[in-house]
């Protein structure tokens, strides 16, 4: 298998939609009456969830006039949040077909299918014409992509001039070896984490102007503490969460992620850029 096939397999669940429906039923949630917030615990598979999305996306100036690209969309939670909050049209791409199929079904549940379209595709060779989008973003995606120069070249190609592009990725802070498994990779050979300076260099080489860089380490650590307290309070309640996506591997992956951040090996970073 090539890298993209390995990544798609890493995220493949096997019965993801059924697992989500089962959890909702145990919470006595009616699919016909779901809100965006009901699905937030699994809908945005990145550090900080919906809170992180609000902080990150508020910097990209999206509006009802925009046609936005979500790169590595997963289930499309952030895409649906943008469509609902900013009234933008959003197209999402992801390598994992099961995520695309499940995400499109969730969009139907929330009556957002007319605003959000998810497609199986590679970020390194996107099936879109030049200058198709007025904005783009990716959240916890770069760690799965080795050739970031090609990634940013492709993003630049499909964006209109002066369009904003936001990145919220986990990035390398030291040369210390990361503890695996983590949510994006089971072993080091399938992880392509890079430093902030690596991102800066490649973004500049792809003709992007860097607007802001925000270190979100403290936010992430506070988020872990909050989740820990909530988990203790709700230990007898079956709820949606990252365990729904990662099954039995969730605990070890999240614990290692937290340890890596606490030790200063890695940190979640926001980079906001604009196409020149």
Classified by CATH, the class is Alpha Beta
- Placed side by side, the strands forming the largest sheet appear as 3-2-1-4-5-7-6
How far apart are the first and last residues' alpha carbons, in Å? 37 Å
Gyration radius over CA: 18 Å
Helix content: 40-55%
The average pLDDT score comes to 93
* CATH fold field value: Rossmann fold
Enumerate how many helices there are, as a single number: 11
Class from secondary-structure proportions: alpha/beta
| Low-confidence regions | none
What is the CATH architecture descriptor? Answer: 3-Layer(aba) Sandwich
Give me the CATH superfamily: Vaccinia Virus protein VP39
What is the domain total for the residues?
1
* SSE sequence, one letter per element: HHHHEHEHEEHEHEHHHE
* Strands, count: 7
Strand count, sense and barrel status of the largest sheet are: 7 strands, mixed
- The fraction of residues assigned to DSSP E strands is 15-25%
Describe the global form. Answer: globular
What does this structure look like?
- The chain has 276 residues and is an alpha/beta fold.
- It has a single domain (3-271), classed as Rossmann fold.
- Helices cover 41% and strands 20% of the residues.
- The chain is built from 11 helices and 7 strands.
- The chain has helices at 3-11, 16-26, 40-43, 49-57, 77-86, 97-109, 148-158, 196-205, 217-233, 242-246, 250-262, and strands spanning 67-71, 89-94, 116-120, 133-139, 159-172, 208-215, 266-275.
- It is globular and about 50 Å long.
């Amino acid at each position: 298998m090539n890298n993209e096939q390995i990544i798609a397999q890493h995220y493949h669940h096997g019965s993801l939609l059924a697992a989500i429906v089962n959890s909702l039923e145990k919470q006595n949630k009616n699919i016909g009456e779901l809100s965006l917030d009901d699905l937030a615990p699994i809908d945005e598979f990145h550090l900080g969830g919906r809170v992180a999305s609000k902080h990150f996306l508020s910097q990209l100036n999206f509006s009802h006039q925009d046609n936005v690209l979500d790169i590595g969309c997963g289930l499309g939670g952030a895409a649906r949040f943008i469509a609902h909050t900013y009234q933008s049209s959003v197209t999402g791409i992801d390598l994992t077909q099961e995520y695309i199929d499940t995400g499109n079904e969730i969009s139907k549940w929330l009556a957002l299918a007319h605003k959000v379209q998810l497609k199986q595709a590679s970020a390194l060779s996107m099936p879109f014409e030049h200058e198709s989008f007025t904005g783009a973003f990716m959240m916890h995606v770069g760690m799965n992509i080795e050739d970031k120069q090609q990634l940013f070249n492709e993003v630049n190609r499909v964006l209109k001039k002066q369009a904003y592009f936001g990145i919220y990725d986990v990035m390398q802070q030291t040369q210390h070896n990361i503890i695996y498994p983590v949510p994006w990779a089971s072993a080091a050979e399938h992880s392509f984490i890079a430093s902030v300076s690596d991102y800066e260099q490649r973004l500049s080489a792809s003709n992007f102007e860097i607007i802001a860089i925000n270190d979100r380490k403290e936010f992430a650590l506070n988020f872990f503490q909050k989740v820990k307290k909530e988990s203790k309070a709700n230990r007898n309640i079956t709820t949606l969460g990252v365990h729904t996506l990662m099954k039995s591997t969730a605990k070890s992956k999240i614990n290692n992620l937290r340890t890596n951040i606490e030790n200063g090996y890695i940190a979640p970073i926001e980079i906001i850029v604009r196409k020149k």
